[in-house]
Amino acid sequence: xxxxKENIEHDLEYYQSGIKQLYMKNYQxxxxxxxxxxxxxxxxxxxSESIVRWLLVVLFFxxxxxxxxxxxxxxxxxxxxxxxQIKAQLPTEFHKIEAIEIQEDDQAYYFLNGQESFVKLKKxxxxxxxxxxxQYTLLVGFTDExxxxxxxxxQPLHFFYxxxxxxxxxxxxxxxxxxxxxxxxxxxxRRIKSAITMFIVLAIIGILxxxxxTP
Length: 215
Fold this sequence. Notes:
Blueprint: H1 2-14, H2 16-47, H3 50-71, H4 76-98, E1 101-104, E2 108-113, E3 117-122, E4 126-130, E5 136-141, E6 158-163, E7 168-169, H5 173-178, H6 183-212
Parallel strand pairs: 1-7
Antiparallel strand pairs: 1-2, 2-3, 4-5, 5-6
Helix pairs in contact: 1-4, 2-3, 2-6, 3-6
């Protein structure tokens, strides 16, 4: 156990720069999306009148607050704090990660932990790092799945250790591996909930912008 912990700490330290790039890329993605939303809101401010303008002003300040909230994660000390948490957390989770099933297709990696959880990482959002632990590879990445999670911002990256000789390739992974699992129903419910939340937010913004442009 001590040797494994030392090897994991070595991996994290050795690949810290690459991990930081993924960390920054994840937050930059959310930040640029928020800037685009703020641009739409500011356009509505220019075109709107009376009470609609005040509503857009409130919305804009909320968005600005979210932008400042995201900026705190882009600071060097924020990454260092997060990195130290991962160094302490990952060794204790190694054996759980080791038991997770991994498959891939041409676009993504799929991590299946029994019927409890499912993580999809697109290959463009993930990096494989050769590990000091024999036969293992450390995969680090972030997901683009539409799911609102309270841990999404606090813990943006997923870390997996896997034996490269055990990885399976399947173009029909979802059909073959997920069609009979119980958690897929829960996952679909989370996605529907997230989609409804996103729809409501976008609908409110769209209605405000529409009425602000109405004479």
